[in-house]
């Protein structure tokens, strides 16, 4: 028997061959989620090329034409038309633009607010932490959907109003996660080394703390994007979100509810698209969370 001791890795190190890229590629849920997201992004970007008709063009002589798989369907309108004779496939493609725009815009706005508050609270502690914790607690006491309904009903509804309202209401999770992650990072040796070298507080937060808590920020962003898209659809369904004639999926469901027993596909198609987009974003978020968790890196 050989007397050579087996090679052991230092605690927390990454085994050979387990690079971050390989860890990401090993996550099946992440790959499926990103694949589905790529399809929706392609739909949104290429909508002018893929749409067979103008999504706003009405043709009252071709109302409620069923999809091509129905007996009365035709390939001129592959997914049929709505009660105003507008091509449903075109409206679904352009609806992807609105959903992704809302998801990305709300995440950027709420992420800037929540991440800033969380970084400050986690790094400085003390009164700043108490103030941020109080604001988070106050925000959590207010139901998002009810507050959004009240605000939109008072000031009026439009695409940008919905983005602004949701962005100002969805920052709490960013603040909570960033505060906790920053508290864990600020006591590490490299932060003390940066402080001892005379680096400014702003530089330490931006160059040392933020890059090391960014993975958690990305995971929260994916989950909040899905939540924002779903909330916009709910507001549009209630008539207080995106206004006609914009092809929001929630608005399309709302406009078709009177026909649900006669033309079920008018609700099924935008509802399925919305559900699949939320599913894709959640899959991607779960895959990212698993890929960056400490247990996956050893």
From TrEMBL:
Start and end residues of each ABC transmembrane type-1 domain: 96-285
Transmembrane segments: 30-51, 98-124, 144-169, 217-238, 258-281
Subcellular locations according to the entry: Cell membrane
SUPFAM superfamilies on file: MetI-like (SSF161098)
Primary location recorded for the protein, binned into one broad class: membrane
Entry's Gene Ontology cellular component terms: plasma membrane
Topological category with respect to the lipid bilayer: Multi-pass membrane protein
Gene3D superfamilies listed in its UniProt record: MetI-like
Keywords: Cell membrane, Membrane, Transmembrane, Transmembrane helix, Transport
BP terms from Gene Ontology: transmembrane transport
PROSITE patterns: ABC_TM1
Cited Pfam families: BPD_transp_1, OppC_N
Family listed: Belongs to the binding-protein-dependent transport system permease family.
Full protein name: Peptide/nickel transport system permease protein
Organism: Bosea lathyri
């Amino acid at each position: 028997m050989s007397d050579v001791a087996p090679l052991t890795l230092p605690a927390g190190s990454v085994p050979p061959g387990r690079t971050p890229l390989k860890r990401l590629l090993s996550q099946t849920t992440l790959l499926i989620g990103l694949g589905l997201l790529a399809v929706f992004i392609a739909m949104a970007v290429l909508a002018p090329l893929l749409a067979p008709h103008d999504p706003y063009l009405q043709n009252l002589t071709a109302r409620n034409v069923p999809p091509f798989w129905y007996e009365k369907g035709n390939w001129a309108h592959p997914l049929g038309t709505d009660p105003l004779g507008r091509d449903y496939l075109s409206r679904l493609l352009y609806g992807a633009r609105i959903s992704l725009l809302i998801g990305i815009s709300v995440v950027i706005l709420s992420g800037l607010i929540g991440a800033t508050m969380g970084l400050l609270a986690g790094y400085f502690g003390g009164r700043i932490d108490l103030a941020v914790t109080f604001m988070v607690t106050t925000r959590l006491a207010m139901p998002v959907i009810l507050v959004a309904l009240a605000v939109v009903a008072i000031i009026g509804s439009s695409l940008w109003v919905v983005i602004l309202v949701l962005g100002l209401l969805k920052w709490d999770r960013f603040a909570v996660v960033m505060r906790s992650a920053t508290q864990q990072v600020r006591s590490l040796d490299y932060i003390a080394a940066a402080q001892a070298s005379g680096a400014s507080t702003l530089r330490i937060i931006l160059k040392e703390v933020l890059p090391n808590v960014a993975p958690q920020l990305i995971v929260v962003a994916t989950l909040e994007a899905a939540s924002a898209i779903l909330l916009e659809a709910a507001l549009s369904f209630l008539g207080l979100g995106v206004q006609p004639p914009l092809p929001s999926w929630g608005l399309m469901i709302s406009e078709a509810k009177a026909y649900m027993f006669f033309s079920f596909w008018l609700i099924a198609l935008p509802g399925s698209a919305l559900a699949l987009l939320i599913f894709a974003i959640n899959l991607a978020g779960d895959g990212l969370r698993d890929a960056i968790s400490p247990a996956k890196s050893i």
